[in-house]
From TrEMBL:
It comes from Alosa alosa. Keywords: Metal-binding. The lineage of its organism: Eukaryota, Metazoa, Chordata, Craniata, Vertebrata. It catalyses: 3-fumarylpyruvate + H2O = fumarate + pyruvate + H(+); acetylpyruvate + H2O = acetate + pyruvate + H(+); a 3-acylpyruvate + H2O = a carboxylate + pyruvate + H(+); oxaloacetate + H(+) = pyruvate + CO2. It comes from the Eukaryota. InterPro entries: Fumarylacetoacetase-like_C, Fumarylacetoacetase_C_sf. Belongs to the FAH family. This is Oxaloacetate tautomerase FAHD1, mitochondrial. Residues 1-129 form the Fumarylacetoacetase-like C-terminal domain.
């Protein structure tokens, strides 16, 4: 963890309809992950603001309705474990992001939905879902 500069809140969105279409045609899923607003990233959070990354409360609302509310303490693998595992396979460089997963409650969203997400007491971000 000595090499971790900080954290960001990211939302890894997927266009499931596009993904399903690509799957049915045996095509790569790239287009399902590459659309406007497909991976919003919060402002940078220095690691001093999150002294225990293993116990961070995360939440997400869609159109002001709570959809996800959980903690990194519920993750299958700890953040130090994930960093160690990934760095054994991939050379990590300054500025690289590792998206670690999401609390239960994943559900579909529609174009123009308003999404608000946050790390309790640390950062919030909001955006409108946009599709190409």
């Amino acid at each position: 963890m000595d090499h971790v500069a900080g954290y960001v809140l990211c939302l890894d969105m997927t266009a499931r309809d596009v993904q399903d279409d690509c799957k049915s045609k045996g095509l790569p899923w790239t287009l399902a992950k590459a659309f406007n607003t497909s991976c919003p990233v919060s402002e940078f959070i220095p690691k001093t603001k999150i002294p225990d990354p293993g116990n961070v409360k995360l939440w997400l609302k869609v159109n002001d309705q709570m959809r996800q509310n959980g903690s990194t303490s519920q993750m299958i693998f700890s953040i130090p474990y994930l960093i160690n595992y990934i760095s054994d396979i991939i050379s990590l460089e300054e500025g690289d992001l590792i998206l670690t997963g999401t609390p239960k409650g994943v559900s579909s969203v529609q174009e123009h939905d308003e999404i608000e997400a946050g790390i309790e007491g640390i950062v919030t971000m909001s955006f409108k879902v946009d599709r190409l």
